[in-house]
Each structure stands twice: as structure tokens, then as C-alpha cells.
Amino acid sequence: MMASKLLASASSTLRKTLTTKPNPHHLLVRRLSSSSSAAAVAADPAPADSYEDANGITMKGVRISGRPLYLDMQATSPVDPRVLDAMLPYYLSRYGNPHSRTHLYGWESENAVETARSQIAAIIKASPKEIVFTSGATESNNISVKGVMHFYKDKKRHVITTQTEHKCVLDSCRHLQQEGFDVTYLPVGSDGIIDLHALRSAIRPDTGLVSIMAVNNEIGVIQPMEEIGNICKEFKVPFHTDAAQALGKIPIDVEKWNVSLMSLSGHKIYGPKGVGALYMRRRPRIRVEPQMNGGGQERGIRSGTVPTPLVVGFGAACELAMREMEYDEKRIRALQERMLNRIREKLDGVVVNGSEERRYVGNLNLSFAYVEGESLLMGLKEVAVSSGSACTSASLEPSYVLRALGVDEDMAHTSIRFGIGRFTTEAEIDRAVELTVERVEKLREMSPLYEMVKEGINIKDIQWAQH
Amino acid sequence: MLRLASKRVLEIAARDGATRPAQVLPRLYHERVIEHYDKPLNVGSFDKNDPAVGTGLVGAPACGDVMKLQIKVDEETGKIVDARFKTFGCGSAIASSSVASEWVKGKQLEEVVTIKNTEIAKYLSLPPVKLHCSMLAEDAIKAAVKDYEAKRTKSNGSSTAEPAEKAAEA
């Protein structure tokens, strides 16, 4: 009864806006206001914010007094307002399909897509012709790993990758193994960097691909890309890199790195989610088997309509990143040092996971000895961070990346990744430090391990019963 | 008209879609888990050399959970008069040990060993992946009782004491 009345009132306001014919911009404003007034008529508050009220936020059974401060930039980043500005026209008025050849809508969209392609090519020093748009780095990684091996399957049966790759590369490799390909998973040192000699000796005559990520998503270490590229060049093996975490953060040069394929993502660099790109070298040409069949867009490598607004946003994000990389780096480095120094001033037993020198500065992966990571995260609800540990998943295993580094299992259970980005402020860092220190101290007070260590007992000497 | 109708449908769909997720989202932790995590009861330690104290230490750091539960027993009545715990582990492990330490208080030794992990899990609404936390709490209670009894046998001088612990005492 109530609902039908509501509906009637909502539709009547809608009818009004649809029948009047002001200029398009005006219409938009009217439409927006009409929908918000319809929501106001409804007894419940604005739907999207129903978990938020004056007293705070309740979600998944957790109550927080306000929105947490965001320090999880490796997971995703907010869209830069300048990026959104570039995107909006392509949602509202220039909404043509970039593949439409018969009218202005198509032409202007195509132009915008090609501009974005150049912007992305510029930041990695490639040619626009070498860029293929995809839905994100996961898709690009899938095309690279499976696409290359499937294309060259008659002669090449072996792939080399590392133990610390992103799941989508590892999973693509597992898939290849099931199809009968051989995969070598290179180990990494305690600093997270691969051993170049091990790479050299792992290459076989039938090696069809070396896939090594540039910047690790969990621990932020930077692999020696130029050296790896040189080895691949020497043995004439195509080199693929997942650069989702590197794009816009460290200088990338596809020539210097000698990469044949590179996976890129939009939402890690203040661009929109759901868009990415694949760099594919033209000389010497690398070929892949498409993973998706369809209308043959993107030179047949990735069929499906190119999403103009997302691509435009990705392009704009790359252009901004190129212009501001140095400035961002300096700022983020200062924030990272501030955070690490302040935490170390107040707490002992803090370990940085992965190399401290060869590291992207926006990633601070810390282990707090004698404190379990998940309980720390639970107490840090006012700070949006993530733990390297996969404890919340059914596996109860600590992070495979940290285990690959040879981090003690008890320390691997205690890791937290702080991701600092373009919009992070000093005040946020200070507050995060304050909350982290407070919580770690509280949990250590509660920790039997910390108590033992204080009593002078070596935890490693105890025969623990394994469950 | 068709356009209007479809707009209307869309509007409803949009509104429904927007309100639903907030309710469908699974709770990460039950209120009681959060309560016990935020304000754990009986955190602390007794002197483990006190003959009236039984200590249970279970779990392993490598598994991400270590629980230490201590009980103080009145020798005359065999009743647990007080309990303390310390736990290294996730929020559910902390809550499980907090609940266990509270439940054993004021009970007889033979009574507390009948506390089942399922009761703790039910009380805290633990999801399947967290059931091991409640099992650990049950083990901790049993280990503490065993330790106390071993101590008492030893001090009475009768027969050799069992090397009681599941996880070794340091």
C-alpha cells in the first residue's frame, strides 16, 4: 500500500521531468534531484547509506565511529577527481560506441580511445599500436601467460615464473600445467628478489615465456627488470611482466626492460576499476592466442566493445601519473619514513617484510612479533589495511609470498600491509601509527608468547604440538 | 509509455538492489566475539609454580594460535576459584579463551572437563573456519586440569607424575 503510493509519487515526478524539455544539462540536474526527492519521500534513509547513521557505521557486525582512514592503496585507489572529470562527458553526452563507423558519436569516442592509448603508451615509452585494452591486469596476465604458450605450443613447452607472483599468474600457470606444460617457479631470497643465476640456469631450449612481476603487490619489492630483460634477450625468450603495481609508481621503459608483454591496470593509479591494458611488442613481434572470441576489436586480441569512459579515465590517470610521479614519490617516501620511524620508536619486534632498499615506497609490509595479524586487523577497524596473511580464508595458511621469503611461520601470521598513496595525509599516518601502537601493545599484553619472551624463554626451543 | 514503464521498473530494481546488500552481507564476527575481543575477561597470569594453579598451554605459533589458560583450585573443595588466560591468535581465539576462562570459574574440576568446544562455538556463533579456536579452548581447559592434577599427585608423593602437557611447558 505504502509502496504503491511511493511508486506513484516517484513516477509522477519522473513524468514531469520527462515531459518538460529543457537543455540537456538542465535535464540532468532535474533528473538527479527528482530521484533524490523520491528517495526522501521514502521512509528509510538513502539506500546506499543505510549502514551509516549519526552514531557511526555498522557493517558485517562491526561498529565504527566514522569512515576508516584508508591505507590499502595496493588493493585499489580512489579515482582522482581530475580523472573523473575527463570521464564524465563520455558517460553523459559522448556515449557512442568507439567501433561505430557511421556517425559522429562513434568517431568522437574512437578519438578519445586513441588519445587514451597514446597516453598509456607514453608512460611506458611504447608505441600506441602496442597497447591493447582489457578489463584489467588479471585479464592481461591471462592473455599473456596462456595466450603466448597456446600460440607457440608446438615448439615451446616450458614457462618460468616466481613463487611470489600474483595469484592470477600462478593460477594461469597451474592451468598450463594441467594441459601438460612445464612450469618452473623460481624461489626468491629473504629480501623477495629473484636470483638471476637461478633464472639463467632455469631457461631451457623449449622455454616459451618468462613471467616476473615488476613490483610485488604484497611486499612492494622491485625486481631487477633490466637484468632479467637482458637475460631473456640473450636466450631469445619472451619476457612478460605484471606491472600493475609498478605503473605510475616507478619509471617504466619497455625498451630498457626488454619486455615483450606487460600487464597494466587502471584502478591502482587513481583511475577507474574494470579497465586495464596489455602491452604487446611489435618488433620483434609477439603473438598470442585470444582468450575471448567475438567482434575482433583490439586487433582480434580482445574482442568486446572498448569501454570509452573507463579507457579515457585510464588514459587521464596515466598522464597525471607521468606528470606527478616524482612529486608523489617524494611525498609518499616522506610519509612512509614517518610511519616506520614512529612505529619503531614505540615498539620493539617490528620487521619490514621484503627488501628495504629495493622497494616501492608506498608499500610498508610489517610484521609485529608476538601478535597475530588477524586480531590486530580486527582491532584496527578505524584503519583500512590488509594483512598478508590469508587467515580469514578457509586455508588458515599464512601468506604464500611471506613464506617464499622464508619468513618464520609465526611472523608470517603477524603481517600488515600499509599502502600509502597520493591522497594520504600526515594526519592520517599519525593517527594510524597511534592506533596501531595502541592495539599492538594491548595484544602483546594478552600474548602468552610475549610473556615468555619477557621471561627469557626462547619460543623456538619449545616443542609445540602441531594441530 | 513503454519507456516510462521501463524507467519505473528500473527505479524499483535500483532501489531494491541498493537496500539489499547491507542486509545480505555476512557478519564477520558475532557481537559476542567482538565484545570479548574488546573487553576480554580474566586476562593475565598466575604464578605457574603455585601448587594450587594448573596451567594449560596449547596450540603453536606457526599455526597462528597459542592459548595459555590457568586455573586456581581450592584444594579442599576441588572447585576452580579463579582463572586467567593469555592468547596469541585471531579475535575468535581470544573470545573463545575469554569465554572458557569465565565458564570454568566456580565449577568443579570434573565438571569443567565436560565443557565441549561446540558449546563455546555455539555461544560465539563461530563460523566453520573458526571452529578450531573453540577446540583449542576446550583443549586448554583439559590441559590446565591435567596439569593441576599432575602437580597434586606429585606433591602427594604417590606414583610417578604424568608428563601431562599436550604442548610442552617451558
Any overview of this molecule?
The complex is a heterodimer of chains A (467) and B (170). By secondary structure, chain A is of the alpha/beta class. Chain A folds into two domains: 81-320, Aspartate Aminotransferase, domain 2 (3-Layer(aba) Sandwich); 325-457, Alpha-Beta Complex (Aspartate Aminotransferase, domain 1), CATH 3.90.1150.10. In chain A, 42% of the residues lie in helices and 13% in strands. Chain A contains 16 helices and 15 strands. In chain A, β8, α9 and β9 (239-242) form a beta-alpha-beta unit. In chain A, α1 packs antiparallel against α2 and α11 packs across α15 (426-445). The longest helix of chain A has 39 residues, at 308-346. The radius of gyration of chain A is 25 Å and the shape is globular. Chain A starts with a helix and ends in a 13-residue tail after the last helix. By secondary structure, chain B is an alpha+beta fold. Chain B has a domain at 51-153: Sufe protein. Chain: A, CATH 3.90.1010. Helix content of chain B is 49%, strand content 16%. Chain B has six helices and three strands; from the N terminus they run ααβββαααα. Chain B has helices at residues 2-24, 31-38, 91-104, 109-112, 117-124, 131-156, and strands at residues 53-60, 65-74, 79-88. A three-stranded antiparallel sheet of chain B has the order 1-2-3. In chain B, a hairpin with a 4-residue loop joins β2 (65-74) and β3. In chain B, α2 crosses α3 (91-104), α3 crosses α6 (131-156) and α5 crosses α6 (131-156). The radius of gyration of chain B is 23 Å and the shape is elongated. Chain B starts with a helix and ends in a 14-residue tail after the last helix. The model of chain B is unreliable at 9-24 and 159-170 (pLDDT under 50). At the A-B interface, α1, α2, α12 and α16 of A face α1, α2, β1, β2 and β3 of B.
Task: List the defining traits of the structure above.
A: 467 residues; 2 domains; 7-stranded mixed β-sheet; 3-stranded antiparallel β-sheet; 42% helix; disordered N terminus; B: 170 residues; alpha+beta; Sufe protein. Chain: A; 6 helices; 3 strands; disordered C terminus
